[in-house]
Amino acid sequence: MIPGPFSYHRPQTLADAVKLLSTLGDEARPLAGGHSLVPMMKLRLAAPAHLVDLHGIDGLKGVRRDGNNIVIGAMITQHELLASGEITKSLPILHETALLIADPQVRYRGTIGGNVANGDPGNDMPALMLTLGASYRLEGPSGGRDIAASEFYQGAYFTALEPGEILSSISIPVPAAGHGYAYEKLKRKVGDYATAAAAVMLTMAGGKVATCAIGLTNLHETPLLAADAAKAVIGTSLDSATLKKAATAAEAIMSPAADARGPIEYRKHVGGIMVMRALQRAASRAG
Ligand SMILES: Cc1cc2nc3c(=O)[nH]c(=O)nc-3n(C[C@H](O)[C@H](O)[C@H](O)COP(=O)(O)OP(=O)(O)OC[C@H]3O[C@@H](n4cnc5c(N)ncnc54)[C@H](O)[C@@H]3O)c2cc1C
Predict the structure, then answer these.
(1) What is the model's pLDDT at position 287?
(2) What local confidence, expressed as pLDDT, does residue 208 receive?
(3) How far is CA 59 from CA 54, 99, 199, in A?
(4) Contacts with 137 (C-beta within 8 Å, 6 or more apart), sequence order
(5) How far is the CA of 226 from the centre of ligand 1 (A)?
(6) What is the spatial distance between Cα 198 and Cα 112, in angstroms, rounded to a whole number?
(7) I need a labelling partner for 155 at 20 to 30 A (CA). Which of 49, 223, 240, 254 fits?
(8) In angstroms, rounded to a whole number, what is the distance separating the alpha carbons of residues 165 and 145?
(9) Distance (Å, rounded) from C-alpha 16 to C-alpha 90?
């Protein structure tokens, strides 16, 4: 299939992009890497009359430290994230997750901003952003605002983005030194979206879990934080009974779709296994 007709715009500033999107209204969509939007257009599942390409705008790239936060420009590609020394050093789970997205071709074009703004439950970055306590900077016709990733996702392809708003950057608190981390993703083949995936960030003290956050990908119409599962492991040494308890608590909040990746019960079951594996691997990496 080929996409329907559309007009192409390439603004040079964020203000111009916001103005264009506000003026053109519902018929216009921002274009980042195009690796979700263009396939949707080719399938005629999306038919925007105007594409506002964000590639001409300076200032939407880069990774920088801002106090105790790492700020990542929305137009950074997955490939650029993988090449960033700052990310490898301070946020190794982000490196690990980016490496599990699709294949090099997609990672060369796909951006972190497009991944988190898309609202597809199959995208890997949103659940990770919840796990990391990230917030998103949105620029719109009435100015800028920050929103927690945990408040951004409202349904499949339905986010807190208001008409005319562009996600310009992502801010992530630098994790504690010596933290353990893991992103476990089950997929049918290399380059596929997750059948089920789990992100874990934790710290250990005296052989026991001191803090823990667990995020779930493609196990609900939005990314999820498995708060009860995380609570279940605090103060434990992650013995097998605790791991099972955490998996059961996580499964209780999963409601995946039954699709080509498997029936609901199967996806919940493997979702629980991803949680247990991620907890174990994160603990083994904690200092
Ligand atoms: C074969 C294949 C396999 C894939 N596998 C995976 C996978 O395993 N895991 C995974 O996570 N993803 C996967 N993807 C999707 C890929 O990661 C996309 O690049 C990503 O979902 C969207 O990023 P993008 O930069 O391409 O955004 P685009 O496709 O350009 O945009 C996606 C949506 O977000 C909006 N948008 C983009 N940027 C902004 C912004 N800054 N502000 C506001 N709105 C914005 C667009 O208007 C559009 O609605 C795969 C894609 C392909 C083609």
Answers:
(1) 87
(2) 98
(3) 11, 24, 29
(4) 144, 145, 146, 167, 168, 169, 170, 171
(5) 24
(6) 18
(7) 49
(8) 10
(9) 34
- Distance separating alpha carbons of residues 136 and 61, to the nearest angstrom: 14
Length of the chain: 287
pTM above 0.90, yes or no: yes
**Maximum CA pair distance of the chain?**
62
**For residue 161, which atom of ligand 1 is closest to its CA?**
43
Cα distance between residue 163 and residue 106, in whole Å: 27
Between CA 99 and CA 51 the distance in angstroms is: 28
Q: Which of 212, 214, 222, 139 is nearest to 179 (CA)?
A: 212
Distance 232 CA to ligand 1 centre (A): 34
User: What pLDDT does residue 33 have?
Assistant: 98
Q: Which of 241, 222, 223 minimizes the C-alpha distance to 279?
A: 241
Atom of ligand 1 nearest to the CA of 120: 21
Instruction: For the chain, list residues with pLDDT below 70.
Output: none
Torsion of CA 145, 146, 147, 149, to 10 degrees: 140
